């Protein structure tokens, strides 16, 4: 077990041939599988994504559906509109209607556990997608990116741009936001960032005028933004800027841990009428945020190629269908078990490498990037 030994989830599945009832909030596509490991029956896969408001989940869902249909599987893709109870209901319907495999990107990794258990009870396998399902044995595999590395990249970017490693003493004003308190991944993201930035706060080189600095990485939920919501992040930054930075005090950097929080931050800066933007981090490389990087509003984002995550997840299912062991060399502990996991590598993107990584890499067009 390496340093990434934490918690993941996949729920095991055997085929039931009950037609899947349509559930609200999603789309459906189906094909018949040939050569599914010997049964000759249709392999049925359910995909539960948390929402469509964040562009990345639409891309994730569509990429994964395309990959699985390419193997000839019958695929049902659904979005839960950010509502935990709706996601639970959708997963339960998938379980009751004979999904052999259910891929779950949880809104709330703890709340999703009961629905995952129903999938397992009905003979299905569950794979936790990007977000771990907690405190249940009904998780077989987990596919995600190196979680702490995401936060570490954000922290190191601030460290580099402020010259902290070069001995700059500041003090620099840095405001911190973490992810959704219900998202298990958010704790790992913040820990990665805090391992870099925490010592500078302790020494006084970094400070936060708002005082919203956790006592440790374990206290990350105290600065969490519910559901990674852009408007909530914007409201939070409006309160901090209006209270502590509209007297001419410079805000040097903001640790925003995804692109929605970054958007809320640079929107607030624009509304305040400042003639500069702080160093603002992000995650997910959403189109609007890529454009914001080109325009100088946002400094960087952590790019996670969801095409590769979809491919890795689809290949896990293909291996299981074929009676093979999926590639999952790491583990995450979800409170009940060590879940076999596959961790992909994220990439720091800013204006210097944006074209090379995102445009030349085929993830986004030059026009969509604002180039």
From TrEMBL:
It comes from Bifidobacterium myosotis. InterPro entries: Bact_Solute-Bind_Prot2, Peripla_BP_I, SBP_2_dom. Pfam families: Peripla_BP_4. CDD domains: PBP1_ChvE (cd19994). Residues 46-325 form the Periplasmic binding protein domain. Its main location: other. This is ABC transporter substrate-binding protein. GO terms for molecular function: carbohydrate binding. Residues 1-24 form the signal peptide. Keywords: Signal. The keyword Signal applies. One of its GO terms (cellular component) is outer membrane-bounded periplasmic space. It is found in: Cell envelope.
């Amino acid at each position: 077990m390496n340093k990434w030994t934490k918690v993941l989830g996949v729920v095991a599945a055997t085929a039931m041939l009950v037609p899947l009832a349509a559930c609200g909030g999603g789309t459906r596509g189906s094909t018949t599988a040939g050569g599914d490991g010997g049964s000759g029956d249709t392999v049925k896969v359910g995909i539960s994504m948390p929402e469509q408001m964040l562009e990345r989940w639409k891309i994730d869902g569509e990429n994964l559906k395309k990959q699985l249909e390419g193997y000839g599987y019958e695929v049902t893709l659904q979005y839960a509109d950010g509502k935990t109870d709706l996601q639970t209901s959708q997963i339960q319907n998938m379980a009751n209607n004979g999904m052999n495999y259910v891929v779950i990107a949880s809104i709330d990794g703890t709340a999703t556990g009961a629905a995952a258990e129903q999938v397992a009870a009905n003979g299905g396998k569950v794979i936790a997608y990007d977000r771990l399902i907690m405190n249940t044995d009904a998780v077989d595999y987990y596919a995600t990116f190196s979680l702490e590395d995401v936060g570490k990249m954000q922290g190191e970017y601030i460290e580099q741009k402020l010259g902290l490693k070069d001995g700059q003493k500041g003090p620099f004003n840095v405001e911190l936001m973490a992810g959704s308190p219900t998202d298990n991944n958010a704790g790992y993201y913040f820990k990665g960032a805090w391992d870099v930035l925490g010592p500078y706060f302790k020494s006084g080189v970094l400070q936060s005028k708002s005082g919203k600095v956790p006592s440790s990485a374990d206290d990350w939920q105290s600065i969490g933004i519910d559901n990674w919501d852009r408007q909530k992040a914007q409201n939070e930054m409006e309160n901090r800027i209006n209270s502590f930075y509209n007297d001419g005090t410079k805000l040097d950097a903001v640790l925003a841990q995804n692109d929605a929080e970054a958007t809320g931050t640079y929107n607030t800066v624009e509304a305040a009428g400042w003639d500069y933007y702080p160093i603002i981090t992000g995650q997910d490389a959403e189109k609007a945020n890529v454009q914001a990087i080109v325009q100088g509003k946002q400094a960087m984002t952590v790019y996670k190629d969801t095409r590769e995550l979809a491919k890795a997840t689809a290949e896990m299912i293909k291996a299981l269908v074929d009676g093979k062991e999926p590639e999952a060399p790491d583990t995450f502990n979800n409170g009940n078990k060590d879940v076999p996991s596959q961790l992909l590598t994220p990439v720091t993107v800013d204006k210097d490498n944006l074209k090379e990584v995102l445009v030349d890499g085929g993830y986004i067009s030059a026009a969509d990037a604002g180039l």
